[in-house]
Design goal:
Elements (H helix, E strand, L loop, with lengths): L6 H24 L6 H14 L3 E2 L11 E5 L2 E3 L13 E10 L2 E10 L5 H18 L8 H14 L3 E2 L5 E3 L6 E5 L16 E4 L2 E3 L5 E3 L6 E3 L5 E3 L2 E6 L2 E4 L4
The structure holds magnesium ion (2 copies).
Amino acid sequence: MIVLKTRDEIEIMRRAGRVVARALDAAGDAICPGMTTLELDRLIEDVIRAQGAVPAFKNYRGFPGSACISINEEVVHGIPGDRVIGEGDIVSIDVGSIVNDFYGDSARTFPVGAVSKEKARLIDSTQNCLALAIDKVRIGFKLGAVSAAVQQYAESRGYGVVRQLVGHGIGRQMHEDPQVPNFGSPEDGPELESGMVLAIEPMINAGTHDVKTMTDGWTVVTADGQASAHFEHTVAVTDNGPDILTLS
Ligand code: MG
Ligand code: MG
């Protein structure tokens, strides 16, 4: 069941979204070669808590971090730890927060130092996928228009679109209906309605779309070991078009 949000609820979600955006801004400012993913996670948790919010991922189904931090071939759900971030890595950081019982959820992939042309193109393309998808968040369109926008652009660039993981509705729960796949036809899925709030999150692989989960039970990696990028915004459907709630 898709839960529609009132205007007041969307404003609370914007506060949760702003917390997440500021945490990602701080992470982007701080990230550098030699830092561990755990150091980055602590900084993110501090920024979230300093704004009076709660890190949504901490202890979610037993996840130990406040952020998911995934490097290079890691797609999503990387566990913060003693892995050292290196020059030329690309680092996907996914952050969630809770404010007054509502969730915000956003992710960005950061280049660390000088990255290869291929990795830079992957990051740009994934960011473009998200922008094109958000542009389809309009009343009267089907949810499939959002999904198809991601798939068409990513595949036109020669990339693989992850199938096993998808975006989601969001509100009083981090994961609500509907699922928001990054692939499909513009005619698929429910019609977009005012008050829906969607976490749209293209996960785009340089090579095959196939992924696997590591033995830690969390970290998802590309099946072929090539790089992956991830961008996500929490977006409300309004009468005036898309309203991105995860901006700083
Ligand atoms: Mg997320
Ligand atoms: Mg999400």
